[in-house]
Design goal:
Layout (H helix, E strand, L loop, with lengths): L1 E7 L8 H12 L6 E7 L6 H11 L4 E4 L5 H11 L4 E4 L4 E3 L4 H9 L6 E9 L7 E3 L18 E3 L1 H6 L10 H11 L4 E12 L7 H17 L6 H8 L5 H10 L3 H15 L1
Parallel strand pairs: 1-2, 1-4, 2-3, 6-9
Antiparallel strand pairs: 4-8, 5-9, 6-7, 6-8
Helix pairs in contact: 6-7, 7-8
């Protein structure tokens, strides 16, 4: 079974209800039907509770938790604790799948125990009329930026048992920290090189200053501090501003070939 976990808050505001409904349709019209859907509502003050109740009566929402939380990762962790599936997919309220066979194809792959998660590409739709653009998966970039489109990921739940839940001290980059922990522990993903999901742009991750702070911290905590790098070095890595001096430190200290190859790619992009 796949446990779909959706954190939400005030989905009726800013014309977001339409996208929530698209999300629900795209989940519950998948070819793969062995799904539980857990929705964690952060004590919404609009019509969200009534809408969630409607979908629960329809049989599409399995569990609803409605209470104040400490942020999106607090909400997701509540869902992970409650979930009963062997696999987990985390779905935002503004996202929806474009391909209704995606879950089925992911489960076919994951039946091969060689893989721990699946991922694919997503298209980002602008809220203000700008051009759409596609974000693609690229594991080669994993150690300087998020390599996967996390909404497309279906992950074995046992990875959370092994590595722990999302770090709630983060506000926007705990998913990236978890991905780094997965890769550093040797977990393997399967990539579908196709656009399977649509997202709206914006949200908390569009706060550039917070992104720099949190992603740099994730780099530092997962591999930087163990390889003689400072938080400032990790900030330069994330911003793709690796200087010759930082590259010399990386080359001397980093022994993990995966990290080294990724940071070499980042360095070459910077000097090209």
């Amino acid at each position: 079974m796949i446990s779909v976990i959706t954190p939400c808050l005030n989905i009726c505001q800013d014309n977001r209800l339409e996208y929530f409904e698209r999300m629900m349709d795209s989940i519950h019209n998948q070819d793969w039907t062995d799904i539980e859907h857990i929705v964690i509502d952060g004590a919404s003050t609009d019509e969200t509770p009534n809408i969630l109740e409607k979908y629960q009566k329809k049989g599409w929402i399995t569990h609803i938790i409605s209470e104040k939380d400490e942020g999106i990762y607090s909400a997701i962790n509540k869902g992970l604790v409650l979930s009963k599936g062997e696999f987990v997919q985390i779905m935002n309220t503004d996202d929806y799948f474009l391909k209704l066979d995606y879950f089925n194809r992911c489960m076919t792959v994951l039946q091969d125990r060689s893989f721990d998660f699946t991922h694919a590409d997503r298209i980002i739709k602008s809220r203000d009329g700008k051009s759409d653009y596609i974000k693609r998966g690229n594991e080669k970039s994993a150690f300087f930026r998020m390599p996967y489109r996390h909404q497309t990921m279906i992950v074995r739940k046992k990875l959370f048992d092994e590595l722990g839940l999302f770090d709630e001290s983060y506000k926007i980059a705990a998913d990236y920290k978890f991905v780094l922990q997965m890769l550093l522990s040797g977990k393997r993903g399967y990539y579908f090189p196709e656009t399977v999901l649509c997202s709206l742009d914006g949200g908390a991750s569009s706060n550039r200053e917070r992104c720099i702070q949190e992603v740099s911290r994730a780099l530092y905590e997962t591999y930087g501090q163990d390889n003689g790098l400072t938080i400032k070095d990790c900030m330069a890595i994330y911003q793709r501003k690796i200087s010759p001096a930082i590259w010399s430190k990386i080359s001397a200290n980093v022994k993990d070939e995966r990290i080294l190859d990724s940071l070499e790619l980042c360095y070459k992009q910077n000097i090209s």
